[in-house]
From TrEMBL:
PANTHER family linked to this entry: 4-EPIMERASE, PUTATIVE (AFU_ORTHOLOGUE AFUA_7G00360)-RELATED, NUCLEOSIDE-DIPHOSPHATE-SUGAR EPIMERASE
Protein name, per record: NAD-dependent epimerase/dehydratase domain-containing protein
Gene3D superfamilies: NAD(P)-binding Rossmann-like Domain
Claim: rRNA-binding is one of the keywords in the record: no
UniProt record similarity statement: Belongs to the NAD(P)-dependent epimerase/dehydratase family.
The keyword Oxidoreductase is annotated on this UniProt entry: yes
Source organism superkingdom: Bacteria
Keywords: NAD, Oxidoreductase
InterPro entries: Epimerase_deHydtase (IPR001509), NAD(P)-bd_dom_sf (IPR036291)
Domain NAD-dependent epimerase/dehydratase: 5-162
Gene Ontology molecular function: any one: oxidoreductase activity
Species name: Roseobacter denitrificans (strain ATCC 33942 / OCh 114) (Erythrobacter sp. (strain OCh 114))
Amino acid sequence: MKKLVLTGAAGRLGSYLREPLTALCDTLVSTDIVDDIGTLYAGETYVKADLAQMDQIAPVLEGADMVVHFGAIVDEKPFEELLGPNFVGSYNIWEAGYKAGVKRIVYASSIHAVGMHLKSDFIGIDAEHRPDTFYGLAKCFTEDLGRMYWDKRGLESVHLRILSCAQVNNTRALGSWLSYPDLIQLVTRAIDTPSVGFSIIYGVSNNDRAPVDNAKASFLGYRPIDNAEVYAAEVLAQAEPVDTTDPGQMCHGGPFAKVDLGQSGLAQMNVVNDKKQT
């Protein structure tokens, strides 16, 4: 590819994607709303742009072959706060991408699009939407947006329903963990698979306790390597007894399935900010 665009480049996951993405294109254009993202990699440029402003984001996509769209508010917030970056921002990416002739958009969707399903149901990629929050609703909206733009306009997209890409320090993560190397493989397969149409795949490592089924997405060639079971003994030794009446423990969305709408889900979690530094 000549040009690849990465949104959300200043985020934790974006920080791990920047370097490997430069190997897939002549020019990686990273974008976010911060002033600076640190030292740039060879072949990388940075453009500050607000996803919610079409006049800012559209020029960034001009001439791009593909977009890796990881930009968003990554927590539950009141709907009004999510509307711009998470809803309007997605529309702007798809509409600007279509007008610019982009071939494919790779989107960081989330398990929270189906977060109210029980983990014991072992859902596949065709599970119906059951968002656990306004944040999850934005993921449902963008998945449906991607399907519509494929059906009506032929713009391909791969929607990565990431479960939890963070250090394994709780029992939920024994099933939901996506390691950073597996994240990179997942995004790479979403980019280099010759034809994807509209696709959904769960972003999860090769965990013994994985609660989702990627069988119908096997054509994407994603074969995760890491397994959270190596952390199981330590995590389970410190775990509290399971409360089977608690949706935060029984549903895919974890704490997001329990909090009130508009209230932070991340505040209930112990996410370590191990962002890659440049």
